[in-house]
Amino acid sequence: QVQLVESGGGLVQSGGSLRLSCAASGRTFSRCSMGWFRQAPGKEREFVADIDWSGGSTDYADSVKGRFTISRDNAKNTVYLQMNSLKPEDTAVYYCAASELVRSYYVGDYAYWGQGTQVTVSS
Prior knowledge:
Elements: E1 3-7, E2 10-13, E3 18-25, E4 33-39, E5 46-51, E6 58-60, E7 68-73, E8 78-83, E9 92-99, E10 112-113, E11 117-122
Parallel strand pairs: 2-11
Antiparallel strand pairs: 1-3, 3-8, 4-5, 4-9, 5-6, 7-8, 9-10, 9-11
């Protein structure tokens, strides 16, 4: 079992930055692949970024590549999403997720989810 709590969301102007954190509890965190997803009103939840258990391999959605960076600190049981050059279209609820099996783009491959944190980017 892994419990996840996101923080760090808020309101920011276009071009600004935010860093999201996801604190995990549970003994298996260091073996989990982690993902960040987001969901805008009226849209499906979509993949943003993922990272393997060691932090050595990452992947990003094309829409955020070069602007967002995912990282993790297994000693602190925390995964981060640094978001730079934010755009209004990045406005969404951001969720972190954990998978004990695979690193994946797909929502269904993640067994554990946080409650989400709102990110709003004003133009």
